[in-house]
Model the fold of this input.
Amino acid sequence: MLRLESKAGFAATVATERNTGSRGRFLRVGAAGAGTLALGSVLAAGVPRLGLSGTSQARDVEILNYALVLEELTAAFYRRALARAGLSGELLEFAQVAADHEGEHVKLLRKALGPNARKVPKFAFGKAVSNPKQFAATAIALEELAVAAYNGQAGNVSKPVLQAAAGILSVDARHAAWIRAIQDKRPASQATDVAKTQQQVLREVDSTGFVRS
Done:
């Protein structure tokens, strides 16, 4: 179950599928850790493809591959929800907009990483995309986890990636605020966002059972 300390009761709304083998492989994906959306704005600003020469660039590639896993996860979640969750009204609009954003971020990350990009994982979302209520609770958790992941890794990326990611982070935070408002929750629930380490983020994603390979 996806456990977010600031969201009491969320665990009851997320699918419980698990796979021990895939869990181990997922935990080995990222070496440095990072938040999602880091590279989209880098490419938009015209920064050339990152290479593996030099410590800083090698670390960026590791971080961006971790970001790619989170982006693939979120993009797949929205696509499945649009097909299966029976969404309507503003909830449907939100899912369509977020799905488009996440899909573009995945494309940008893969273009930047080139042959260094990891393979697309397989996902299984179970009850998380079975109805609007389950979808909304999971969307809130995933968007807020992305913000926490980025905040926890801001000091681990090179300056160009950090500068570009700051603009993308604000959009990701707006996603979180939008879906919270749809669910009649305060868009900003606290004065500051909590940062989470790579290990914390991977543990929470892994606990959902969403990543199957």
Residues 1-54 have pLDDT under 50 and may be disordered. The chain has one domain: 18-202. The domain at 18-202 is CATH 1.20.1260 (Ferritin). The radius of gyration is 16 Å.
